[in-house]
Amino acid sequence: MERSFIYTSGADQGKNIIVQCNLCLPRVNLLSTSKTSTSNLKKHLDRTHLGCDARPDAKRGRKKEEHNGEESRHCQLKKLKAEIISKCMTQAKTDDLIFNFIVEDCQSFYMLEQPGFRKLIAGLTEGLKSMDRVTLFTKVDQGFSRMREELMAKLGNVQYVCTTADVWTANNRSFFGMTCHWIDLDSLERKSAALGFARLQGRITFDNIAGRIHDIHVAYNIESKVQTTVTDNGSPFVSVFKEFAVDSQESDDDIGLYENVGAVLEGEPEQDMLLFLPNVQRCASHTLELIVTEDFWQAVSQGPMCQLHYSSMAKVYAIWSKCHHLQVGMNAADEIGKMALVVPAVIRWNVEYCAVQKVVSFSELELTELCARLEVPRMQPEEMAFLKEYVTVFHPLAFALELFQAEQKCYLGLVIPTVLSLKNKLNEQKDAANYFRDAINAIVLAIDVRFQELFSSTEARIATATTPQFRLWWMGASEREEMCTLLATEASQMDPCSVTEDNTSHSVSTIKSEDDFFSYGPVKPAVQIQQRGVMEEIRKYVEGTGKSVECLQDFPRVKQLFLKYNTTLPSTAPVQRLFSQKGNLVTSQRNFLTDDYFERIQLLRYNSNVCTLVTE
């Protein structure tokens, strides 16, 4: 083996030279002088490292010792890792992680008995075992009971709640879902929870749906706290509330009664229960969608642009169909447009609008190439102009739908300002529109007709006025004084125990000086003093400029009105998310779960954000 040396030399005299042999570990420091030549340095290195080549056995022995040392260190590290895992991962913690995995992804309970899954758990936990199905069923029962108790405790401290209800039918199976929503008193953040996800057997009748709503409200002890129940605009739910809603002007004989059919069939004595159904609030997003799908199409079908609309949308649907059913179509769209082409997954207009928006975003050359590769008819210039104007005109409506389908920052007070702004945006585009001028007039008229009940609703107007983002700016100057009086009247009728106020000098007489003691004339009633304090608070709130809900902390009476009227959601989007959380789960492939345990799994999944699944 040839020996070589690595050394560095300095330019100045007296600087050390560091020399290292490739066969020896020690370094040799030499003092360089101006008279030292390179040959003398090499001779000195040869004498210093004489015999380096003559020690190959020692080198191999050293390598063998190093290899053995590495194996021993590897074994020590492996034992140390096992000790750390054994201390961190206990059997109880492993079972909790498996429980979370099964619940959050709605996995089959049979997975616990699969050999591969058992080997995976044993390998990751260094010998710990996976629980069996019996243990999992027990943990599901315990987790559901704990979740329900915790949720009832949270709802017990809430004064106002709102529920959403809907029925979903898929694969010859029907499910009834209900969610609950409230606003936290301290942080003013919206909280949501699922209350029911039950399978509906047999025919879906009015009394069946009404009984489900009533039973869930009673089970969670919120029947007196529910302000409204939000449903879609379908005829079944609207008819249910018309049939069973309690009207204060009706006599007791007109109130609907709920008869427990199960008790009758089991031979138990008949017991009629008073059926309580709260006020119903129709879904605002569904109303807007009906305006587009029904009123807009009726206006288009009767106008001169019917054929243009039909041909344009037919070609767009052809592109959607090819991209949806053929992977090559999606790949072509991604390759040409460098973006994913949105394909509508459900029949909702806002998804359809996004898909048209994506198609219009292609350039003329890219769209022509895409149509050629997908073998669909190419777009004509007039059709492209029609679709571009379609996207421009209906952009405010799509934005309004997105606002209504939000959950955390969406209140009932958002609906009236949104609808009024939508009408203004549509009217602004009327003059520049070439194809949709008549359609805009029809849509504006449909908005006035379909939202007429909401515009005249006192609850909706108070909800809008108590929202700091809008206050009374959306109203005319002549109506603001009347609204201030209405707010003061509603605030004065609030429960005094619910209004937490630091300054109580308006209702309690305090004497701090002589000026406070002496008084002349008739004594002012305490009610007048309280009303004056309420009106002063309303005036200060109306004159404020803050748009965040946190500013309501300075106005306790307005805050209570906000909690009462803005707890209501404007749409049924949360209950629809319950049916399709992380993908559509209401299908025939339910992992062989019974209806009872399927409901429990779904409620545990949805409520994991507000309740703990497992106890550490």
TrEMBL record:
Q: Which domain of life is it from?
A: Eukaryota
InterPro entries under this entry? RNaseH-like_sf (IPR012337)
Q: Where is this region: Disordered?
A: 52-72
List, alphabetically, the SUPFAM superfamilies matched. Answer: Ribonuclease H-like
Question: Which PANTHER family does the annotation name?
Answer: PTHR47501:SF6, TRANSPOSASE-RELATED (PTHR47501)
What protein is this chain from?
Answer: BED-type domain-containing protein
Organism phylogeny: Eukaryota, Metazoa, Chordata, Craniata, Vertebrata
